[in-house]
Amino acid sequence: MKFGMRMPSIKKRIAARTSVKRQIVQRAGIKMPRGYGWLRNPKKAAYNKVYNKTSFDIFSLIKKIFK
After folding, report:
1. What is the model's pLDDT at position 29?
2. What does the longest C-alpha to C-alpha distance in the chain come to?
3. How far is 62 from 67, CA to CA, in rounded Å?
4. pLDDT tens digit sequence for 31-55
5. Distant-in-sequence, close-in-space partners of 61: CB < 8 Å, separation ≥ 6
6. What is the 3-state secondary structure (H, E, C) of 6-66?
């Protein structure tokens, strides 16, 4: 589990937005509504909730400074 600042990866960021799997799901309209992760994969949803509360993104930190 990560605590503290997350290190950004431009390569992973671009890959996640341009993946074939994402394009198929987006265009077919078979996305699940927000909050349904607990039904689909509870273990992953619990991990993500803790991870997002214990770490922060450098870009959100920069946003707060220059706001």
Report:
1. 83
2. 39
3. 8
4. 888 888 899 899 999 999 999 899 8
5. 5
6. ECCCHHHHHHHHCCHHHHHHHHHCCCCCCCCHHHHCHHHHHHHHHHHHHEEEHHHHHHHHC
Q: What is the pTM of this model?
A: 0.61
Q: What is the pLDDT of residue 1?
A: 66
Start-to-end C-alpha separation, the chain: 30
Token pair of 27 as six digits: 């265009």
Give residue 7's Cα distance to chain centre. 13
**Alpha-carbon torsion 10, 11, 15, 16, what sign?**
negative
- Measured between alpha carbons, how far is 9 from 23 in angstroms, rounded to an integer? 21
